Amino acid sequence: MSDSVQDVVEVMDRVRATVASVIEGKADRIDTALIVLLAEGHLLLEDVPGVGKTMLSRTIARSIDCTSRRIQFTPDLLPSDITGVSVFNQQTREFEFKPGGIFANIVIGDEINRASPKTQSALLEAMAEGQVSADGVTHRLETPFMVVATQNPIEMEGTYHLPEAQRDRFMARITMGYPERGAELDMLEHHGAGNPLDSLRPVTSAEQIRSLVATVHTVYAAPAIMDYILDITEATRHHEDLRLGASPRAGLHLLRASRARAAMSGRDYVIPDDIQALAVPVLAHRLMPSAHAQLDGKALSDIVTGIVAATPLPERG
């Protein structure tokens, strides 16, 4: 095990323990969120209100000594509220750019699907390219940059569908689910008297996260692993239960996330287990079921699981 990968393990263990002290009984969700952070991706948290979506994102932000901002998405939110706006300065007689809520290391987008599609689209350039263009000027966003957005189920009142292009920008989607009874009892005992975030202290810095991200880039993925990813993504494009398969960006995100998972596991190389573990959270939210799959009530996660199970494992080189 190389020293650099060991650094990833040690730092992320500290972050994981800090987040787990607030979000109890959700170890797998926490791990996926931290994988997305190291892989320079963005995370979509989807579930009913009150199960800890916003708390998870705020806890991750608090665990890292970096800038964080929260944007509450509402039907009247404007794109300029997110990206920023140019304001005329009476003293200098010039326009000055006032940065919007997107200018932070970790941006918490609360209830993203309550805003209009036009406002949601304001995130596209920032999430894909790490920059914002306004009045012909490009403004770079500081790294690490991660959008952690929460979303209510589409059948709930006052929600809009996320456009396909928007969903494709998110590296992974996870659902929180209700906590187990023991974890919920611990929450009542420990968090009933106050906000658990008040006593939380950062355990790493933005600079250190940037260093760990650079280490993740060096994790080796063999040609057979690349072929394995392509076999899975191509299978989604020809599957009878899907009318929209995985994009090339989806395959790239799956590779980056697999590298991050390998590093967090103490390895400097990717194995098929990494891909299998991440296929559902990385791919399922980008896909669209066919009409007969919807009528049969087939879940996208089950379809992806079936595709992965039917895809031959790469041969040892």
Structure overview:
With 317 residues, this protein is of the alpha/beta class. It folds into two domains: 3-213, P-loop containing nucleotide triphosphate hydrolases (Rossmann fold, 3-Layer(aba) Sandwich); 219-310, Magnesium chelatase subunit I, C-Terminal domain (Helicase, Ruva Protein, domain 3, Orthogonal Bundle). The chain contains 14 helices and 13 strands. It has a five-stranded parallel sheet with strand order 3-6-9-1-10. β4 and β5 form a beta hairpin.
Produce a short descriptive summary.
By secondary structure, the chain is of the alpha/beta class. Helices cover about 45% and strands about 15% of the residues. The protein has 14 helices and 13 strands.
Number of domains: 2
CATH topology of the largest domain: Rossmann fold
**Percentage of residues in strands:** 15-25%
Total number of beta strands: 13
Net shape: globular
Distance from N terminus to C terminus (CA atoms, Å) equals 21 Å
How does CATH name the architecture of the largest domain?
Answer: 3-Layer(aba) Sandwich
Largest sheet: 5 strands, parallel
How confident overall, as mean pLDDT?
88
The top level CATH class name of the largest domain: Alpha Beta
Uncertain stretches: none
Using only C-alpha atoms, the radius of gyration works out to 20 Å
Biggest sheet: strand arrangement: 3-6-9-1-10
Count the DSSP helices. 14
Which structural class matches the secondary elements? alpha/beta
The helix content is 40-55%
